[in-house]
């Protein structure tokens, strides 16, 4: 497969302006570079959402819902369509391979755009992770004899995700504010309670993660690789060894590159393991890809940039991993480690807009079995410290005294202690106006700080959600 010379200019564009998943100006710039960007295909089953005011708008993850659906030619035979999640197509002389099929509410447009450049039948659909953004358009693109390829960990993840759905959905809705509008409009449009049914899939080709899988179509070679990474232990990738193209879908590298991985999620997910993430980065570095095609964000076509980014991520993750175990060996508890372990100067350029180093520390310590800190006996018992908050309020002489102290801490520039004190007061008198007014004030300070520092999506979205709830009590 030959690579058009114009494709090399993508890397230049990346250094000039906003990334594709931010303002998305790259879409119009690519038109000027003569890359094949098609207009959005219209279909009666798409759901149009109001994305003007979304939680954590302006962050890479918050703005994913705003990503326009456009098709871009990567090579003469490789195409991708952007959206909440990228979908890919590889044409060969004997048919096509599709990688990811998008979210159900965007899949009609994405699959229509792929079909415009599809040559021959779809022989394989590769699902890198088995999440909602993988499976939404399967029925729109598959042919009668299409084979679905998944790793066993991805197939098992789908069973877990289905079981955990009632636990996870409210948590997602708290952060991704557009999900409620999506569900309401989709229910009305489809005239059914569950317009996006999520069901585990039994693939035609089940790949054992530790073995991988090689296949060939039309003289083009493909390799399925387990790449447990930034978005889950069930992530996998598809490697084209002769073209040196790596489809790093399934969140192997996160929604922006380079970016600190979201290994300790606020929304909740199965274990995301730092040590395995480091192994995955080493695997990718060893491949020396010349084109990197992620599940989100735009392609990277400069080998030097790809290798530099992967090496930066690997080295930063290794540093944090080593510091965690050094700290545990010194008897430090998880909160000490969360405060102490920060990225040194050489890695400080890494964005923490999706995951945070301190959350990774906490998740890794928990995975190490260190849930009991060998410090407080009360940790052995099924009660949080909140069980004595009302007693503490009484001891302090009432909520007014507690709130006065919270306001004092806020004026002193310590919103962390202030939010702890406010939560003590809320446990005693959740509807107290003064308590809720102070709650809003502290949350707004935390929000301002979050927006001025790491700009982490989950933190900002959570704070915005809680401010809305606290204001509703006033």
TrEMBL record:
<dbReference type="Pfam" id="PF00753">
    <property type="entry name" value="Lactamase_B"/>
</dbReference>
<dbReference type="InterPro" id="IPR036866">
    <property type="entry name" value="RibonucZ/Hydroxyglut_hydro"/>
</dbReference>
<dbReference type="InterPro" id="IPR029228">
    <property type="entry name" value="Alkyl_sulf_dimr"/>
</dbReference>
<dbReference type="InterPro" id="IPR052195">
    <property type="entry name" value="Bact_Alkyl/Aryl-Sulfatase"/>
</dbReference>
<dbReference type="GO" id="GO:0046983">
    <property type="term" value="F:protein dimerization activity"/>
</dbReference>
<protein>
    <recommendedName>
        <fullName>Metallo-beta-lactamase domain-containing protein</fullName>
    </recommendedName>
</protein>
<dbReference type="InterPro" id="IPR038536">
    <property type="entry name" value="Alkyl/aryl-sulf_dimr_sf"/>
</dbReference>
<dbReference type="InterPro" id="IPR001279">
    <property type="entry name" value="Metallo-B-lactamas"/>
</dbReference>
<feature type="domain" description="Metallo-beta-lactamase">
    <location>
        <begin position="84"/>
        <end position="296"/>
    </location>
</feature>
<dbReference type="Pfam" id="PF14863">
    <property type="entry name" value="Alkyl_sulf_dimr"/>
</dbReference>
């Amino acid at each position: 497969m030959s690579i058009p010379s114009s494709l090399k200019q993508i890397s230049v564009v990346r250094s000039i302006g906003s990334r594709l998943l931010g303002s998305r100006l790259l879409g119009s710039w690519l038109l000027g570079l003569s890359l094949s960007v098609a207009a959005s295909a219209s279909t009666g089953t798409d759901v149009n959402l109001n994305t003007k005011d979304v939680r954590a708008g302006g962050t890479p993850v918050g703005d994913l819902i705003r990503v326009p659906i456009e098709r871009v030619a990567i090579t003469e035979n490789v195409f991708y369509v952007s959206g909440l999640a990228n979908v890919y197509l590889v044409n060969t002389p004997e048919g096509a391979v599709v990688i990811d099929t998008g979210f159900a509410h965007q899949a009609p447009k994405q699959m229509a755009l792929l079909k415009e450049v599809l040559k021959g039948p779809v022989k394989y659909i590769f699902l890198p992770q088995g999440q909602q953004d993988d499976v939404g358009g399967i029925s729109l693109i598959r042919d009668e004899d299409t084979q679905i390829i998944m790793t066993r960990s991805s197939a098992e993840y789908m069973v877990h995700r289905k079981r955990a759905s009632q636990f996870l959905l409210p948590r997602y809705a708290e952060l991704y504010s557009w999900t409620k509008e999506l569900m309401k409009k989709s229910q009305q449009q489809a005239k059914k309670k569950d317009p996006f049914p999520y069901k585990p899939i039994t693939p035609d080709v089940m790949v054992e993660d530790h073995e991988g899988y090689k296949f060939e179509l039309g003289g083009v070679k493909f390799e399925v690789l387990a790449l447990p990474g930034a978005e889950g232990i069930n992530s996998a990738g598809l490697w084209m060894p002769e073209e040196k193209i790596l489809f790093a879908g399934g969140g192997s590298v996160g929604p922006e590159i380079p970016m600190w991985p979201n290994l300790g999620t606020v929304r909740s997910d199965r274990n995301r393991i730092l040590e395995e993430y480091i192994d995955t980065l080493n695997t990718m570095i060893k491949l020396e890809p010349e084109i990197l095609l992620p599940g989100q964000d735009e392609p990277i076509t400069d080998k030097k940039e790809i290798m530099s980014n992967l090496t930066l991520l690997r080295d930063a993750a290794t540093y944090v991993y080593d510091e965690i175990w050094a700290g545990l060996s010194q008897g430090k508890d998880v909160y000490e480690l969360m405060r102490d372990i920060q990225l040194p100067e050489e890695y400080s350029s890494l964005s923490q807009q999706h995951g945070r180093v301190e959350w990774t520390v906490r998740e890794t310590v928990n995975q190490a079995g260190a849930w009991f800190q060998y410090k407080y006996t009360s940790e052995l018992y099924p009660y949080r410290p909140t069980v004595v908050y009302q007693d503490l309020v009484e001891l302090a002489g009432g909520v007014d005294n507690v709130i006065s102290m919270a306001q004092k801490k806020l004026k002193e520039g310590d919103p962390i202690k202030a939010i702890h004190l406010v939560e003590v007061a809320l446990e005693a008198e959740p509807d107290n106006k003064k308590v809720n007014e102070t709650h809003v004030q502290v949350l707004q300070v935390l929000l301002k700080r979050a927006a001025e520092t790491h700009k982490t999506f989950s933190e900002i979205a959570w704070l915005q959600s809680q401010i809305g709830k606290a204001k509703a009590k006033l």
